[in-house]
């Protein structure tokens, strides 16, 4: 993961262009991506694919010829989608094209202007403050061409056609947490799921430029997703913090929303929950637009906007950490494994209590006495017995596994061994997607 | 409003009779009332129209011939619907026919006995306490005749046949807050609504004697209201206090109930909320009787029973104030304007986000940077942008405007300019009455 | 009740056998039980009727020939369902067959081993601690025979076929609260209900061995109960404490659940509420197994597991008290009387307010004045008037009596006189089982 990070970091990505293709190509070495291209000018719903931005070089010189900002040093120095220019301007005139983060004097901001032609340079505020009067020279060697917008996806088939979507974006240049954390976690989560012995769901991994990319993806695959999507996650900003931060889907009640809340309540995961907001966030805003309203949430760790390095040069591998990404892969796998088991179950012996000792599942003396004799041992058995009996009572086709876990006062994760054991013994059927399968 | 108050105040109103007709006649100078009469003895549901009460004169004299109570001085002195009498009685005997408010020694109470024949005088408690022993003479020149019960209404047509009902009563004699505040506010609210450029709803203004009047009205127009009523308000006691007091409709969820709660929660209005109670109140008890169960609440300011002047001679223009009635007209207009926009909306570009800049609705650089450059200005834009995006996401035919306002954390009133702008730009359709209009 | 207790207490009951039949026979002197027998080996759902256990004698002697435990002294001394044995063992070997309650040194525990063949003796811990080394002699004269499992029931017919089930168990030997309290309360509750002037519901009283007995009962009568059961209660541990403890049915919303919660909220009963738990409790676990899911709760007073005498020789008449059982009968009758009236009502005069004075139900002067004249008297009438008007408004076929009581802020019990009066005057119809009977 560390190596892949290092090879992806320097690339100057944008919502179209060579950086995007190079990124997809590097990812393809790790998972079998099918890549797609949408030509410039294609109408996608209320939007249109913009021209490709080609950037070759850019620099800004002060009155003494010193280079103040150089694209070759950091691709953050150039306003993304800047038009070509070669001018000499006074400091005051030039300042209209300079962007800084005043409260973070050492940071170079990340600025874009995709849909209105502008040009500009991004520098640290302390450099700005020290600039002498005089004539500045700005040079940007860029062009806009009829090209395409690129994205890729990879599908891991499962027993059911119902799908779980994992979507991440690949359009930001040299930023760590708010760019590479998403596709890196997605890639290594793919490897995990590919190794599972069986998959109930089909898993769809998508890598695309933010907003226009997901709108393009929905333009092509939206109807398919409307029919087949069981749950989905947009991955973004998955480095940094110790615990996850989950933004619920638009309904707030999709399967992963439920599992997340259940695991949090039972402390099987640490984290905080954000409500769905259509006005800021990532591609969940598109997946959850009213015409699609897909069951897609967004998983983060160090959330965009809530840390100093957001959208500037302080967003590095050191503040993100590869270790945090590994934790994200672990936590996401845990959630998706719970999702594999979530659903409705049927107790095949629903009339009266199941005779557990017959099936090798019960202490055969009445329990209060046994308790007296061997306190600790029975205390363990008692928990197991209680969970077994509670599970079997609510395995009625009317209660979700998350609800049964609530009734057992344990996490859905802790019930997975019971699901396995009772299934193997032929006592339960399931999981079913729909409520009300008859007993 | 002040003049109309002064001309209405001295009239001796009751649930039938000349005072009622005179009141309707004075109101007709301000709004085009259609008047109705129901003959004495007519059966209206479980009730029957009583005989008309005609009162010409009444007085009570002490042993020295001093006039203790004189109908010509105040119509509150006579128990409303008193039978004719001319008797001389000892103080003890006479006291059985005297009514006072012991805890308010200067107040003359307002007492009625519509459905049981009695006679009596109302005087201040301090007068009662000072009465000397001896023979008292009581004279009441009244009669009961076969006549009619009167009420009037006025209908302002709108684009839809769905109606908003404004109902008030006109059966109390010389009382200010608990009589004239209702019909005065209704009359001047009518003038406001008549001046609106357009009306989505049809507005029905009703003036009638309390209880028996609304039961008579429902007997004639109840079926029409059951079919057409969208929401309604009984207006009573709208003077005095600084903020409104709203009694929810029987369901607690009619459109005005929702708007009221939303505006209160977002501090767009000040006030307190009362639950529906069938056991006390005004004509909402009849409109909300189980056979009709109409969506009618009741709006007050200085609520009946909760102020010293309730049902006695302390209820004057000075404690009510004309200014408070004007505030009531303003607040009610605000609520009804919100109600005009309440409903379900449809975003016509529901697939992916609307491309706001195309429609002139979006800053064209990414926002965090813009924020850095111009803090205050963008803070304003950000609120507008957030509300626009939130509105468009939930303009899905499934969310009411009040719900969208909740999601925007602002009052429904603050969203009205967005409704107007987005409608004008052809981006949204609505409001619709019913949920689930397809996208 | 005291006499019946004394005759039932010494019997050595088990889940099958002579003690069970003797208990049923003694109960039949108090209520007309129809008795049933299920042959050994009969399959009942996932279970099988075990062989009958016949116990004639059992004793344990220390090395000096002193009798340490004697079945004839207390039937708790023998592990219930012990196999026959006659052995001499060292103290260490013998200890593997001895059961005590270490934290209650004087108590003899109650131990069973129904479904695995074992033998053992139960003694107090202080006796165990004082046992000298040496050879011990154990003698158990028991046998297992092809016999039957017995239970009985008695049905009190009512106007409707819908049934209320009262179920209790009769399989524990000499224990008071956790054995005899249930059948004793059931028996005397039967006597009360048999004396009611009329019964809306049919009442079914069931006496059976716990678990295997109720499973057998469901095997035979489960389909009938699924069709006809309106509500039910398992009675257990009804002695001791001052207030009741109710375990809700599986749904938490059956009629008795609702009535219980309403009466508790309005302090018409004292008690605490337990949620349904499938993993411990009594026969409600079988009635509420997912294949039946019957509306059955469980009523207790001094709950199993929560008092020192639970499942040991400290559970006596003195700690239980006959007086507590009488309170249980009283409280249960109160609940069942409320249940008789629970349901939906229809106001036959639903259009406008009912003209109460016509029906002799209303003070005929307006109330605020009357209030002035006679404070206390009217304060009483006002409560009655308010409840009458509230009841009539919500007697719309949509509100349960428990809900109307909530709206009246009184207990369902306090509304019973109103139900009676308004029914007698022909103003209301009901109670109906189903919502939405048209007005």
TrEMBL record, chains A, B, C:
Residues 4-340 form the DUF4910 domain. Pfam families: DUF2172, DUF4910, HTH_47. InterPro entries: DUF2172, DUF4910, UCP015244, UCP01524_HTH, WH-like_DNA-bd_sf. It comes from Cohnella herbarum. Residues 345-429 form the UCP01524 winged helix-turn-helix domain. Residues 52-143 form the DUF2172 domain. This is DUF4910 domain-containing protein. SUPFAM superfamilies: Zn-dependent exopeptidases (SSF53187).
